[in-house]
Structures are given as C-alpha cells and as structure tokens.
Specification:
Elements: H1 9-34, E1 39-44, E2 47-52, H2 53-74, H3 79-99, H4 104-132
Antiparallel strand pairs: 1-2
Length: 133
C-alpha cells in the first residue's frame, strides 16, 4: 500500500527554514566571537582554565555555514541531506550546551530551534521525498 503525503510534510519545510535560521544564528555568533578579545573562565580536569572565545567562535562559524547550506539543500527533499542535517543538529545541540554559560539566552533559543528541526527531520522526513517527486 503506497503511503500518501500528509500535511505534516509542512513541518519538514518548517524544519528546513529553522535550520537556515539556526545556521545564520551560528554564523552571527561565530563572527562576533571570532573578533572578540574576550576570555572566559571554564572548568577543566585540572581546575579553572582561561578559554579564548574567538577559538570557540570558529566552531560556531563553520557549523553555522554548513547548517545554512544544508538548510537550502533540504528543500530539494534529498534523503542524504536529511540525515546529514540530523547529525549537524545534534552536534549543534552539544555546542550550544557548552556555550550555555557564556550566552545563556542565545543558546537556549538555538537549542529550542534545534529540537524542532530534529523532530521534523526524523518524524516526518520521509514524506518530503514523496512530496518532491
């Protein structure tokens, strides 16, 4: 029995749009951090460590650029883009939890968007292939 496309496919399009938004958020946050002279205190295995914010900004910048590009590809309905986006979203969730002490409100907003994107891609992702073809 062929499965039909339901209205839930809109959630995947919404997820792709959110992925674009999260990617752009990361690019902006990354650019701000890359050009920042600020240093923060962080806990490590040896105790308190001073961390350069600009180094962490490069992580956000590269991750954000990849997520933005993948968000555009998701509109084509490619299965590989859906799975790659899911992996990048999980990596971004980890990065945002690490950034939580530095930028709590910004990180919380991105975490919420990441959860919505992940849910849309995993639960309703297969419908996109049927909707596009």
């Amino acid at each position: 029995m062929a499965r039909t496309v339901t209205g839930w496919v809109g959630w995947v399009w919404f997820g792709a749009f959110c992925l674009l938004t999260v990617g752009l958020f990361n690019v902006v946050a990354g650019l701000i951090a890359v050009f920042s002279e600020e240093k923060v205190l962080a806990w490590s295995g040896q105790g308190v460590t001073i961390v350069d914010v600009s180094t962490w900004g490069w992580v956000h910048l590269v991750l954000g650029a990849a997520m933005t590009a993948l968000g555009l590809v998701l509109f084509t309905g490619a299965a590989w883009a859906r799975w790659t986006a899911s992996v990048l979203v999980v990596l971004n969730l980890v990065a945002q939890f690490v950034s939580l002490p530095i930028t709590p409100w910004w990180s919380l907003a991105v975490i919420v968007l990441d959860v919505v994107v992940l849910w849309a891609l995993i639960v309703h992702g297969e419908e996109v292939e049927r909707a596009v073809s």
